[in-house]
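in:
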């Protein structure tokens, strides 16, 4: 491929149009007359954080194990106190390592969604490999939980030029890996409506960017937990003011510590104090948006 400054208009326009935001799917009303919708997600990467890079370190694998042993129970206790249902995006390998965790979450009314096979980076894969992994992941998740996943979050929110076509082939209801809005929208592929609901993510609303650290690098996390709560709260209050969607991504091996779990607890307190928010799984929110917009395939 030539240098970007040499590209003709069809080239750069074509690249931009591959995956695009279509119409806004923020519904006229949320269920129960709620003012806004709250989608809490937890990406249960666990050991795949180390495995995906070919990591061989038992110490780093044990960090992932913490997510399952301590992170998930603390998260579940916080959700249970408020009767809140959430979505857990789980790489298939992580689900095979912790099948009881996934079954317990589904039994209790939470959603378990797709998050790749071993947290692979889609844009580094050829089309056939990516497709095989996504289909194998969907089949594996269904075998583990008994429920076929209806939504995906790509590992590391990475998209290849083939990801959307594979999601369509899997007949997914929604994706939650893209960034083009605060509120739900329909994904458009090369100018064509896909009927797939996007529940957009953002690094601002992700615990990992504030807390992760590279042991051998010079940088250390610079945002104190109170400031992270402040950012998340402002994002929530903004969604509430606009009557939109507040979607937050957290990780059991990041948020699940004694010094951090209060962020989730305090946020749930504030949401409950508002008294007019619909906390629901991504699948339920996507289904509501699709139905209200009359998207085909909406049940
Ligand atoms: Zn992940």
């Amino acid at each position: 491929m030539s240098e970007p400054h040499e590209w003709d208009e069809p080239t750069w326009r074509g690249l931009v149009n591959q995956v695009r935001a279509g119409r806004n799917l923020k519904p006229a009303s949320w269920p129960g007359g709620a003012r806004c919708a709250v989608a809490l997600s937890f990406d249960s990467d666990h050991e795949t954080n180390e495995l995906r890079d070919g990591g061989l370190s038992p110490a780093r694998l044990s960090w992932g194990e913490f997510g399952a042993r301590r992170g998930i129970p603390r998260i579940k206790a916080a959700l249970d106190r408020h009767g809140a249902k959430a979505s857990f995006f789980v790489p298939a390998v992580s689900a095979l390592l912790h099948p009881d965790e996934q079954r317990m979450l589904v039994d209790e009314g939470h959603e378990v969604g797709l998050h790749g096979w071993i947290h692979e980076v889609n844009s580094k894969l050829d089309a056939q490999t990516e497709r095989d992994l996504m289909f194998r992941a969907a089949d594996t998740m269904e075998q583990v939980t008994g429920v076929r996943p209806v939504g995906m979050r790509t590992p590391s929110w990475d998209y290849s030029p083939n990801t959307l076509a594979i999601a369509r082939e899997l007949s997914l209801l929604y994706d939650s890996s893209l960034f083009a809005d605060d509120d739900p929208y329909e994904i458009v592929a090369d100018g064509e409506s896909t009927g797939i609901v996007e529940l957009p993510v953002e690094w601002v609303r992700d615990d990992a960017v504030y807390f992760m650290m590279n042991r051998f690098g010079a940088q250390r996390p610079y945002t104190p937990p109170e400031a992270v709560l402040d950012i998340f709260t402002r994002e929530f209050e903004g969604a509430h003011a606009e009557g939109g969607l507040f979607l937050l991504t957290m990780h059991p091996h990041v948020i699940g510590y004694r010094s951090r779990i209060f962020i989730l607890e305090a946020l749930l307190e504030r949401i409950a104090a508002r008294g007019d928010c619909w906390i629901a799984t991504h699948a339920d929110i996507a289904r509501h948006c699709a139905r209200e917009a009359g998207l085909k395939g909406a049940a």
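note: The chain has one domain: 19-293.
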